[in-house]
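Flavin-containing monooxygenase
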Amino acid sequence: MPIKFIMATATPLFTPRHVAVIGAGAGGLVAARELRREGHQVVVFERGDQVGGSWVYTTEVESDPIGLDPKRRVVHSSLYNSLRTNLPRESMGFRDYPFRRKEGKERDSRRFPSHREVLKYLQDFAADFEINDSVRLHTEVVYAGVEEGGKWTVRSKSIHRDCVDEIYDAVVVCNGHYFQPRLPHIPGINSWPGKQMHSHNYRTPEPFQDQVVVLIGGAASAVDISRDVATVAKEVHVAARTVEEDKLGKLPGRDNIWLHSMIDSVHEDGTVVFLDGNAVIADFIVHCTGYKYEFPFLETNRVVTVDDSRVGPLYKHVFPPALAPWLSFVGLPWKVVPFPLFELQSKWIAGVLSNRIALPSEEEMIEDIEAFYLSLESSCTPKSHTHNLGMNLAQWDYNNWIAAQCGVSAMEEWRQQMYIATSKNRLTRPETYRDEWDDDDLVLQAEQEFANYEI
Ligand code: FAD
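Predicted structure tokens:
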């Protein structure tokens, strides 16, 4: 029987709660939908002027291009103008709201579309599930703290009014984790005379015209930005931790991009020395070195802390045992396919809050977390990789475990196969993987399944 596209109507009511969702990005939107489907009463707080979170592109950048000044006005989005998704749309979309190709002047029907199309998809999602009614735009949560008795005070301020305190049964944190730059330690950087920028503040290549640029990082945005910058720069030198020795040197097919090992040190005369012994005199360093988790509004009396990018202790990256289920987090895992994972986390939270799904006891959750931390230590995984689910395809086991808790079907096999196929394709065709691929059979499987969802 075809699975029907379900609108945001309240389904069987268990114990309805009054829930504050912080953030209206992909995580907050799907959390709101799942909570409302379960019958909860939801308010979504969003400090921006529209829904979509990271996918709301802006030309605005921060006053401190490397994000060290704590007083700077934070710009949320880290998107650059030329960004296209690094995941194919079929696997990227929510499970029951396929990210379909839409024809039309304003639409981008490519398989790996531009960021503008992702924003439209999220806006469509919010409209189709009538989530906008629950969203308070221009409203920043400045404090969310647990009170005696277990209720939560949420203090918000908006452009329309000063701070207001409200009481909620539960708080779901969906504030994103791609807006607080993380910088590497580079010996000599304080007296290096050139300019610096974190990729958070990269929008277009123009500022790099005729410059010698060193770009640090090996992940997707480093690959994209180095190619973008190379269209105008004199030279681009990419320093990455994981470059194979035979790949060091000039990038094949490019006359102004070089690959290097990591930076060893930088010097007052502008020199950047790499660990492989090479050196260049550079004008600019661009740090594509990732982001930090931050929850400046959250007061848990130190029950939840952030230590070296480990947010913890959290049961399955979602619930702090001592405050479960009244505090939860959507979206902490990385190196994952985010939207469907957020969807499952949200279903789990909604079901647990209504008492439809049971959590283990606090002690059992703590034991599980301790065993998880021990397993990370024994495999020499750094603490900072606690929420990295990219290893050994851990995200699929994780998704399927949550799906089982929720009583919904496991993740479709084609999603995992497509993820593997895309990762391989990106390695072999780093320049063209968004336009050339070999997994049309998987696209067909996805489309056959999408036919079950009515829009
Ligand atoms: P966000 O989208 O960051 O949303 C968080 C929201 O919370 C924001 O709207 C913010 O304004 C709001 N907020 C924060 N603090 C407060 C507060 N105190 N009060 C009120 N509101 C608050 N994913 C993919 O699936 N495919 C891709 O191709 C892809 N490419 C990416 C490229 C880049 C450069 C980056 C940075 C990320 C990319 N991602 C990609 C990951 C992307 O971030 C996730 O897909 C997803 O959009 C994250 O959603 P989120 O809801 O967790 O966070």
